Amino acid sequence: MNGLQVVFLLAALVSLFSAAMVVSARRMMHAALWLVLTLMGVAVIFVTLQSSFFAVVQVLVYVGAIAILIIFSVMLTRRVMEDHGDQILPGWRAAGLVAGLLFAIIVGFLALWQGFTTMLVELPADADNLLDLGQALVSPQGYALPFELASVLLVAALIGAITIAVDRKEDQHG
Amino acid sequence: MVTAAQIWEWVIKSLIIILVLTGGFAYVTLYERKVLARIQARVGPNRAGPFGLLQPVADGIKLIFKEELTPAGADKLLFTLAPVITVIPALVVTAVIPWGESVTLFGKTYTLYLTDVNVAILYIMAVTSISVYGIALAGWSSNNKYATLGGLRATAQMISYELALGLSFVGPILLTGSMSMLEIVRAQQKLWFIFLQPAGFVLFLAASLAEVNRAPFDMPEAEQELTAGYHAEYSGMKFALFFMAEYIKMIAVSMIGATLFLGGYLSPLTMLSGLPVIGWLFASGPHWLFLKVALWLFFMIWVRATLPRIRYDRLMQLGWKIMFPLGLVNVIVTAAVIVLAGG
Amino acid sequence: MFEDYLPLLVILALAVLIGFIVVLLGVLFGPRRPTPRKMAPYESGMVPYGPGRRRMSVRYYLIAVLFILFDIEVVFVVSWAVVLRKLGTLGLLGMLVFLVVLEVAHLYAWKKGALEWD
Q: Which residues form a coiled coil (chain B) (predicted)?
């Protein structure tokens, strides 16, 4: 086993374990923090896939922005700020059954898939995925249209957030 | 394949970085107290050792033997973890900053940087965005109104100014065409980027002060209304960790700023001659980086002694309504000039 | 490639270690004599009133949402900046369209008062 495999296995174990903790932690704040650890593990897996750009963006956007939003949302909910009792979904057994079935189906399909055993191809030393990415973003042959549409999507998200949050004047003690 | 010798080299370099940062932290506290005292026509600490040089040691020993309190109703695990989570990003953020090109010791050549990655600036931004967590968690886990409010304020302030900070990085990237810190320093051989990016420099200066919660942006820990902000309930070594993180972050932003805008480890003489300068004192090397960092720190302390604190609503408006649009305009103008000038 | 990132894992591990050692130092050498008075949350010497963690203002949530959007914008700008020289005018225009759309969003938030703290 080489260093790459060791790092991959550790990162995969950490992200799987913390993902399990996200759904089983009793307090919502702890669940949110386990989610942060899961996302960090995924970032390390991106590094082992030689995709450093996605690794740092994973940390920057998911850990540094989206998880912060989740933590803020947890602080916004009244029940958690007071910590009364457990917060367990009433139908968790049924949910567990469905999740288990889905997992079995995915594993079944993966077992049939041929690409599962493909080895990682070493990129040539002069390959710079960063340059390719920047070029693909704005060239019309690449992803120019999705890139511009992404800005429209972001605008829509912003309008939604403002509609939800701005016009309420009663939540003003913080 | 990675050899054992390589791993040892990384461990030793990492230890050197961490030791310089923690040792730097101890003496930046003394530096700050001395400079502030001088500005206010006082003498400053001068009892422990010659010129008060042993003062940081005395402070450290005192803090080790202090009682640590965990307030009733606190989330004990998070309360203990928060200071550790705060100090980790501060210690690792400068890992991509080169201290020089290379040095030959005992017949072997060593590079004067831990690693040179092609996403260095995104790495710095990512680590900066993580540093919000320790502060938010410290505030939340303390079960104290001041601490919760201070943590929330600090978090909102840091994420708001992260945008302006990120945009101020774009100027040097555009001029260099690379995100590697080593490439950015090498591109400043003829002219430091502060002369090509004056607006970006000012933007970085202001946003970095807000990012490390320094005066005049130290609202999250305003003594008069929040007692001490997010670390109100901390004492002993846990408090020392927050203090350490704050001062190491000061050193880190000075290092990053010096590397992006002031030529990093380059000697200023290379700008005049365009030639490599001979003589170790005048030649480029880590000592130039440290000198620039020391000057930058002096500036931060000077600002603290001079400017009053900005009100919180003004502070958020400054970030969102002035600095962020200014950063965008700077990016567009720089990009347009580069494209029109033909690269 | 992957080897360039291993040193970052090394320094991360060392930083974690040092953080825990410092906490441990305080635990080992500090005295521990808790009293109920001492453990009470600090409220400037007054008897603590009400819960320590209150619901925060929805403003903070809004700031976090705005931050996500514009953080993604900054990430795109940074990765575009690396290759601008190769892209030329077309690259500049492509990014301008993107920035103008998001600036409309920024102005909308501004007009709606989402950036005010009252």
A: none
